Amino acid sequence: MGYDVVIRGGTVVDGSGTPARTADVALDGGVVVEVGRITGRGRQEVDASGAVVTPGFVDIHTHYDGQATWDDRLQPSSGQGVTTVVMGNCGVGFAPVRDGDQEQLIELMEGVEDLPGTVLHEGLPWSWESVGEFLDTLERRPRDIDCAAQVCHGPLRLYVMGRRGADREPATEEEIAEMGRLAAQGIAEGALGFTTSRTLNHKTSRGEPTPTLTAAREELVGIAEAIGRTGAGVLQVISDFPDFDSEVRTLLEMMRRSGRPLSVSLLQTAPGDGYRRMLGTLEEANREGLQMRGQVASRAVGVVIGLEGTINPWKVSPTFRSSPDLRDPAVKDRILAESPPLGAGFMRPERIFELGDPPDYEPPPSASLAARAGREGRTPEDMLYDLLLDGLAYMPVMNFFDGNLDAVAEMLAHPHTVPGLGDGGAHVGTICDASFPTTLLTHWGRDRRRGARFELPWLVARQCRATAQTVGLTDRGLLAPGYKADVNVIDFDRLGLERPRITGDLPAGGKRLMQPAHGYLHTFVSGVEVYREGEPTGALPGRLVRGGR
Questions:
Q1: Is 327 exposed, middle or buried (0-12, 13-18, 19+ CB in 10 A)?
Q2: Helices (H) and strands (E) in the chain, counts
Q3: What is the mean pLDDT of residues 430-452?
Q4: How far is CA 189 from the centre of its chain?
Q5: Average pLDDT, the chain
Q6: Strand, helix or coil at 542?
């Protein structure tokens, strides 16, 4: 018997959480057909001896809404073993849209997700009005990996309410009903779910809060209830929880009235253990029979500091903006004199670290800019200036208030959380967290020396099967007969991240941070090899995944 692909002799970590075993994996017709000892031959034979074989990773929190309309490669995610991405998170996207409102949606995405407006103006074709037409546009372009989209509350509110929606005015009963109708229609046409943002951290490029920030409980519950009548779809929320009890009541009511699962972004946003309150809420909701999950990051959420990135401490200097010879000591003196000291803003020397190659995402306090400068008798500004001439710095913020990732370990280990929040396709000049899946496997499954680690089969199950189930994708995330043939073959001993680098490959010459990984020997999507040793094969089997159908 012949197969499209046979992967032979690898250590199979199948996504179920069960112990690894040595086995062959046969792929045919886009699905896994056999796992075990396989005597038939494959048209492509892969020797996986000494390697780990896993399902493709499912990343449920990305923002490729723009990139997916102009690019056939959803990088940097597709270079990190990810074979399915879910976009349209946090209530920001580009559909539905009325003619004349495109600029407002660009300003919203530019401000919330750090995507330059020039890139979006150049790249977006705007060949749609409704959510269904947006999905049709996505479906027409083949890609390296699969993608799925969601109905976004921000554009939905603007479409139904016009300027009143953008100005965060209360919605009438009729407007809530219409938003619910359109959201349900989007789910029926193939969107995976509905997302909204309720955080002050999200602002338009004009500095205005997102249109959904203060949406009333009646609006959120009304939309969720309409979606519930379709019998499909998931809900996703990010919130500051200014009144924790009231906000939780809203989320619970959305699930109770709709019968649909909900996930919420979960981070350590301040010193202490405030995140445990949400972990307790997840436990209470699930005891009630509600399907509520927390999406958690696999490392700190912070910023990358660099001379070409969004966060550059010297860009306020007139001398720096004049494009001088930055290695000239006199130029350095002038730039430092024209720039505020690091402690004057949010960039604090004790929280800034060199981003080495390979990067260390759990650096000890002794490696901070402040500690190093003190040991060498230099100012932090002087040291950072020299560091940025040839490299990058990293400032972890959320999840790192204790100077370690112990809070992340606790959140990852919780039975009602899943990995997420990598924001692939967004914050292109500030972060490169699309590499979260690689960090999940390497840091937590192999490298961590400062605390708890996890078994590799458990980590793979969380990044593959658990994430897929969270968004209703029941056909992937498991290496078993009948499941989608999305597969990674990994040299686990060699698996690792390189330091991010700036590229200028976005529309209009826009720059973004990209982060190569090494150790991914083969990545298959629907049984077709899309990456080999980190390089694209040229194959584009990835498609739009429609949920409601």
A1: exposed
A2: 18, 25
A3: 96
A4: 24
A5: 96
A6: strand
Sign of the dihedral defined by the CA atoms of residues 145, 512, 421, 435, in that order: positive
Number of residues in the chain: 549
Q: How far is CA 190 from CA 69, 87, 193, 305, 514, in A?
A: 17, 13, 9, 39, 30
Global model pTM greater than 0.90: yes
Provide the sign of the torsion angle of the four alpha carbons 74, 75, 76, 82, taken in this order.
positive
Reply yes or no on whether the pLDDT at 206 is more than 90.
no
CB 85, CB 486: distance < 8 Å:
no
Spatial distance between the Cα atoms of 145 and 62, rounded to a whole number of angstroms: 13
Angle between the 102-113 and 153-161 helix axes, to the nearest 10 degrees? 150
Beta bridge mates, 234: 193
Distance, in Å, from the CA atom of 252 to the CA atom of 277, rounded to the nearest integer, reads 15
The ranges assigned to domains in the chain are: 57-299+401-470, 303-398
287-324 pLDDT tens trace: 999 999 999 999 999 999 999 989 999 999 999 999 99
- Region of 100 on the Ramachandran plot (φ > 0 left; ψ -120 to 50 alpha; else beta): left
pLDDT at 113: 86
Q: Could you tell me if 431 and 304 are in contact, meaning their C-beta atoms sit under 8 angstroms apart? A: yes
Name beta bridge partners: 280.
none
Q: Is 423 helix (H, G, I), strand (E, B) or coil?
A: coil
CATH of domain 57-299+401-470: 3.20.20.140
